[in-house]
Amino acid sequence: MSIDDCDVLIVGAGPVGLLLALMLRPKGVNVKIVERQRALYPLPRAVAFDHESRRLFGSLGLTEELNPILEDIMGEGGENGTNYVWRDADLKLIVDLFFEAPTRSGFPLSMGFNQPELEQLLDKTAIQRNIPIMRGYTVSALDQHADSVDVLLEPVTCKQGTTIEERDSPIATKGGEAPHTRRVRASYVVGCDGANSTVRRLQNFSMTNLDFENDWLVADILLRDGYVPPEVRKVGAAQICDPKRPTSCVWGGIGRKRFEFMRLPGESKESLLQDDTMWGLLAPWGFTKDNCDLERKVIYTFRARWVDNFVKGRVTLAGDALHQMPPFMGQGLNSGFRDAAALAWRLPLILSGVANADAVLRSYQEERLDHVSRLTVDCVQLGSVVCETDPIKARQMHEALRKNPPPGFYDPPLGRPGILTAQPEAGHLSLQRELKTGDGQHLFDEVHGYGWMLLNLGDTSAMSQMSDVSCRFFGDVLGGKCVSISPSEDTEGEYRDWFDTHMGLDHVVLIRPDFYVFGHAAVTEVDGLVEDLRRKLSGL
Fold this sequence. Notes:
FAD/NAD(P)-binding domain, globular, 26% strand, alpha+beta, 3-(3-hydroxyphenyl)propionate hydroxylase activity, 540 residues, 8-stranded mixed β-sheet, Glutaredoxin
């Protein structure tokens, strides 16, 4: 049996796996993807796309193709004019998450989208950029060695016992031969294969479970001629905390709406999935067979859990394979995109010998576990209010939230120590705002690009203060850039405010490729900042 070699084998061609592959490819990484499904899944799943994800996709040059599939949800909060709120059974406001608040990334906090459209874009881009995707195969064995992982791939068989024909896959055998077992030898394997991850099971990753588990009926609605009933326009995008029937009414992408209804105690899944039940639940919201079409109905179990150890040797996980959270803050898939971004700069540095594998992969867990566990706990706390079916307890919860509302959505910092300094601003997202240029106003990324960056205020970049050693490491080895922002570019003074509040006007900030702040120092001390990064990447 022949063996296919690659640097990184990604298991799972969903959005997280495809994004990771697309981010690794420009860095010279030989990456391959294996996917058990022979075709893209055509039905909706995730519906929230946040500001950080939008910036990550922009780094791949996908902004123009992405924008038409994103739904602007500003003002979707109904009578309150905001766009994501919690309401009681009488539709009175309990809490507003202020999804319309400004973000560090310069984009709206969240936008609606239809996942199949996003996957089509990612899949098309992966094919255009010559990333091999082996469809119709499942991982049956993972055998780790000192310097590689051997992965056995078996053809997926249909329920009727027939084998999926390989000619339906982008990678076909010569001469139309029958599908066969494959073996891939990779330096690293990343499991992006979903909540029921095969990679996680084969490598015996243990999980922490918060024991939050509820079944919800998810209904995806196709609008006819854009019609949205007044009942829905009144509440906007909201969690309806009604003990008699907890309900979610949210965006679902352009031309769509999503409703979710919690399965009540004693209620069977079979009865909930009946057409009459479904339309009966939608009727109070003004949706009927005469004014909309039901694209999908399915029961999902909302869970809250994460893997205890993110890395085992040369195998790691990302996305739902690594963590699952209730959807009440729209952060499940977006957290997976953050995983991909975190691995996309680490793995190339490890493969090229620049970074210490143990230290840098350990930092993946240090940073991402703290971040994702905070979001998951917040989702569970808010979800417990939505899911309460005892009227007295529900009323008490509602009043407690009204008296002591949460601060709204926030971007938690990365966990420590990680590849970060100990400074308070380290581990937070860097700022992106529009800059004034010779041909108008443009976002920072559009002007200066992506990657490792040293940024300071003024007319002269920090490069003038760097030694030859620092220039070689930061510029030649990391491919980093030195950028300065002058007062004439920072017309609104937002960069000046950011530096003044969090770092110092005479400081330079070192920004990582995933847009998080590594640390900062006085411009005259830039060599020490770069050396600190080098030592952390080396595991010193």
